[in-house]
Each structure stands twice: as structure tokens, then as C-alpha cells.
């Protein structure tokens, strides 16, 4: 508890406007929420009230440390994407969000996926993903035998993922809107956002209160300027997933040559191109 609170305090002291507690994607606090990973039989496991206990304690420790005026956001899943395993249901996750709202969380960001659910949180394209992961990403640390097996299976896995998880702008909206319907605090939706129209329609339709973006900002660091006044030739993420494939092994960057070239041209121009 104390280390979470100390981290939040450090962020506050160096001038950040708020912090976000990560309870999505199969990280520790998400693992406690998910029955598949939480097999405990003490008062941190079993019922939803028990599974949310650690998250509540972490939140309370942070709130105590940073005070009431410092925003604390919560990132959580709308779906764990754990078919044939006991993922938390969307209804349960909405209940978690309501408990956290009552405890004083300022906003929730809705994502999806678990480290055990490939391709998890980054829907898009997957051809070449496994080679990128095995050769330059975190997979480079795996045994040689495992890397060879992954490369052999890659064409089948990647083709299946390409068909089953195509993504699209606002791919988490079907989950985010279920939180929006139940909560009074702002609901932020992440997942595939990169156009003015896509972002506006998500908010204007009332499906969420705000949107966030990861890959579109890796491709275009001026994304939020460019969605307000789109510059001709701006780099637009193609969701090839080259960046996430290399995650953990090399620096975060855009690994699509043509898009990166446009990005580099834009950021080296005196004004955003
Ligand atoms: C290279 C990369 C690294 C990421 N690292 C994290 C992370 O550390 N924590 C996290 O919550 N999400 C992480 N994500 C997931 C994003 O925050 C986001 O939930 C996901 O990419 C979907 O949004 P997008 O479609 O706008 O990319 C990462 C995504 C990418 C592409
Ligand atoms: S490598 Fe570049 S184009 Fe591909 S998903 Fe990442 S940011 Fe988008």
C-alpha cells in the first residue's frame, strides 16, 4: 500500500496533475479482480467485495497521501477477454467502478484484455507481430526452443487474430457505454481513436465522456492538435502493432517505416506540418 502511495506522492511533488491506478490488463490489481487469476480463499479472494478489497485499500492509501484535490483516475477493463476462463464479467467490472466511485475515484478509463488473452488490449493488425516480439520485443528473452515454436505457429495465430480481433475506431465503446450508463464520474474510453469524427461521435453520442489514445499518439505526437485542425500529410497510425510487438525489448516508437518517416518530417518542421 505504502509504495503505491509513495509513488503517487512523488508524481504530485514533481508537478503532475493527477495519477492513474492501473487495475486493467492483468496487472496486479486487475489480477485480484479476475477470478481466473485470483484463487485466494482469504478475505482478498472469492466474492467481488473481497476481490476489490486490495484496490480499495490502495486507493485509500493514495488518497490519504495526496489529499482530496489531487485527481486519482482508475484504468480498468470492460472485458478481460479470457474465453473459456473465469474472467471478470462486464457487470462485475461496472460494480467495481461504482464501488470505486463511492470511495472517491475521480474518473475511470475503460480498456480491455489481460496478459493471458492474446492479442489482448491492442486490437488491430497482427501479421509480423510474433517475429517482431520474438526478435526485438520481450520475446527475445525467451528460450530458443520457445522462440522457434512461436515463429512456427506465427502464421496461424496471426491470421486467426487478424480475423477475430480486427479492432476499429472506438473498439472499447460497447463496454465503456455500460459504465457511462451507471456512473456519475467521467468515463474515458481508450481503443483505436485517431480521427476527429471518431472521437466526437463517441462523446457526442454520450457513449463516453472523453477519449484517450496510445498508438495514434506514438504515430503522431501532435495528435490532439491535428484532430482539431488536421494538417495535410499528418502521420496516421495504421494499427500494424509493430510498436507493441517490440514493447519490453526496445524503445517505444513507430515501427511502420512510412508512417515514422512522416512523423519525423512533421516533428522536425518548424511548425507542425
Ligand atoms: C507500445 C505500447 C505500450 C503500452 N504500454 C502500456 C502500459 O504500460 N500500461 C497500460 O495501461 N497500457 C499500455 N498500453 C496500452 C494502451 O494504453 C492502450 O490501452 C491500448 O494501446 C489501446 O489504445 P490505442 O488503440 O489508442 O493504442 C501500451 C500500448 C502500446 C502500443
Ligand atoms: S508501429 Fe506505428 S503505425 Fe504501427 S501501430 Fe504502432 S504507432 Fe501505429
Care to describe what's here?
The chain is built from 13 helices and five strands. The chain is an alpha/beta fold and 273 residues long. The chain has two domains: 166 residues, TIM Barrel (Alpha-Beta Barrel), CATH 3.20.20.70; 70 residues, no CATH class. α9 links the parallel β4 and β5. The radius of gyration is 20 Å and the shape is globular. The termini are far apart. The structure holds flavin mononucleotide and iron/sulfur cluster (SF4). Iron/sulfur cluster binds next to α10 and α12.
Radius of gyration: 20 Å
CATH superfamily of the largest domain: Aldolase class I
Poorly predicted runs of 5 or more residues? none
Helix fraction? 40-55%
- If you average the pLDDT, what whole number results? 95
Q: Please report which band the strand proportion falls in: under 5%, 5-15%, 15-25%, 25-35%, 35-45% or over 45%.
A: 5-15%
Assign the CATH topology of the largest domain.
Answer: TIM Barrel
Category from helices, strands and their pairing: alpha/beta
> According to CATH, what is the class of the largest domain?
Alpha Beta
**Head-to-tail CA distance between termini:** 46 Å
- How does the overall form come out from the CA principal axes? globular
Number of strands: 5
Q: Mind describing the biggest β-sheet?
A: 5 strands, parallel
How would you describe the oligomerization state of the chains in this entry? Answer: single chain
CATH architectural arrangement of the largest domain: Alpha-Beta Barrel
Instruction: Supply the number of structural domains.
Output: 2
H/E topology pattern: HEHHHEHEHHHEHEHHHH
What is the helix tally? 13
- Give a list of the ligands: flavin mononucleotide, iron/sulfur cluster
The spatial strand order of the largest sheet comes to: 1-2-3-4-5
Amino acid at each position: 500500500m505504502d509504495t503505491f502511495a509513495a509513488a503517487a506522492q512523488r508524481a504530485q511533488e514533481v508537478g503532475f496533475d493527477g495519477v492513474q491506478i492501473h487495475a486493467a490488463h492483468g496487472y496486479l490489481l486487475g489480477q485480484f479482480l479476475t477470478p481466473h487469476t485470483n484463487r485466494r480463499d482469504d478475505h482478498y479472494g472469492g466474492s467481488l467485495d473481497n476481490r476489490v478489497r486490495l484496490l480499495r485499500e490502495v486507493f485509500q492509501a493514495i488518497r490519504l497521501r495526496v489529499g482530496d484535490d489531487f485527481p486519482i483516475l482508475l484504468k480498468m477493463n470492460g472485458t478481460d477477454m479470457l474465453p473459456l476462463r473465469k474472467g471478470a464479467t462486464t457487470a462485475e467490472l461496472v460494480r467495481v467502478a461504482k464501488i470505486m466511485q463511492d470511495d472517491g475515484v475521480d474518473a475511470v478509463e475503460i480498456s480491455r484484455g489481460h496478459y493471458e488473452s492474446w492479442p489482448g488490449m491492442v486490437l488491430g493488425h497482427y501479421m509480423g507481430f510474433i517475429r517482431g516480439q520474438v526478435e526485438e520485443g520481450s520475446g527475445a528473452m525467451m528460450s530458443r526452443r520457445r522462440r522457434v515454436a512461436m515463429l512456427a505457429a506465427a502464421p496461424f495465430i496471426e491470421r486467426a487474430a487478424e480475423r477475430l480481433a480486427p479492432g476499429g475506431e472506438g473498439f472499447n465503446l460497447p463496454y465503456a457505454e455500460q459504465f457511462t450508463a451507471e456512473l456519475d464520474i467521467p468515463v474515458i474510453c481508450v481503443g483505436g481513436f485517431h480521427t476527429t469524427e471518431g472521437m466526437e461521435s463517441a462523446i457526442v453520442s454520450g457513449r463516453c465522456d472523453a477519449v484517450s489514445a496510445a498508438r495514434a499518439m506514438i504515430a503522431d505526437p501532435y495528435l490532439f492538435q491535428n484532430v482539431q485542425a488536421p494538417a495535410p500529410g499528418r502521420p496516421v497510425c495504421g494499427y500494424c502493432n509493430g510498436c507493441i510487438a517490440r514493447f519490453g525489448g526496445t524503445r517505444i516508437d513507430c515501427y511502420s517505416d512510412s508512417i515514422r518517416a512522416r512523423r519525423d518530417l512533421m516533428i522536425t518542421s518548424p511548425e507542425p506540418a
